Amino acid sequence: MIRGLRSGLLALVLALPQALPAQDLAELPLADLQAQADAGGTAAQIALGQRHHDGAGVVQNFAVAAEWYARAAEAGNAEAQNRLGRYYHTGLGVAADPAQARRWLRAAADQGAPEHLHDLAAVLEETAADDAALAEAAALYGQAAEAGHTRSAVSLGMLYQNGRGVAQDFARARALYEGPAAAGDARAQNNLGLLYVRGHGVPQDYDRAAQLFAGAAEQGLRTAMTNLGVMYENGFGVPQSDAEAARLYRLGGAGETREAATFVYDPRLAPPPSEPQEIAALRDAARTGDPVAAFQMGWLLVHREPPGPADWQEAAALFAANAEKGHPASMANLALLYIRGTGVPQDYVLAQMWLALAGSAGFEAALPLGLGLRERMTPDQINEAQARAEARWPGAQDTQ
């Protein structure tokens, strides 16, 4: 039985149009969208799956999204087949199953969309157990690249550069990289830079390589940051600078940008007070349970220079009390404390649960934080966090 269906909706099906354009489905009330999806509308099923995937108006839940995608996939919809295959590949929302992942990704790819050809190729390349799988991946990348799919051209170039699934051919790799690199593709810029550094298929050119690494690094590609750091350390194509090399190594290393995530303020509120007497009155109000005072006091505590253990613990207690009352900004800040393990024991599952709830409540600042955190978590942890979030979602009892 698909989760999230409301009782009595089938009676509404005949009163609803059986198919609506995607832009109309995006605006359709949740109950109406569920009715269309339950009636077998594949576009509605995909739209409903997307809402659960994104946490748009519902708590983010990959398991529920997977169930809706599965219904549309069984009906032969290529987009749903692709999304379901990616879920099986990652283990998000469903138990990881390589055979099922390939089954659904191949079913989608067989319908010819370049993006779906690319996704099947990427999984075959990642999980390749033999040269035949790599050769198939290369062929699929080639089909997608011929149709203008940039990422496939770059991925195929990497296979030629490394001689995986195809005979090593630096000239072919260069030809595949040049167009995407000129258009600003970071992976293509980085890989083309490596060809110029090594003189593979092109005359060695450190200046050109440094320019390409810099272009990719500016877009946040960490591998390119590290490669550019090597150039600065050695003075290849750039002025020698140990300081700049060290900075780039840090950026390209263990995730400095993730750790730099900062606490977020509720934009609906006026700034917190700054005078000692006002802060004392704010703390008193916070202790009585005033939600605005509790949030602002928590905000002031985490921004002390520097906060002490007691400050972290008090802030965590204030944010937690507010989070239990449904305050999205408090949820996001409590999640950051769980990520850092300050004021509370480090717990990625609880952090992801609160970020999912904050995002579902419309607090946009929670979305990038949740995405960054998921990169550190196992699929089982993510699925557990989403199950906990759904159990807490205010509308859960109405959508079971």
From TrEMBL:
Segment forming the signal sequence: 1-22
UniProt keyword list: Signal
Domain of life from the UniProt record: Bacteria
Keyword check for Cytoplasm: no
UniProt xrefs under Gene3D superfamilies: Tetratricopeptide repeat domain (1.25.40.10)
Signal among keywords: yes
Protein name per Swiss-Prot or TrEMBL: Sel1 repeat family protein
Organism listed in the record: Thalassococcus profundi
Phylogenetic classification of the source organism: Bacteria, Pseudomonadati, Pseudomonadota, Alphaproteobacteria, Rhodobacterales
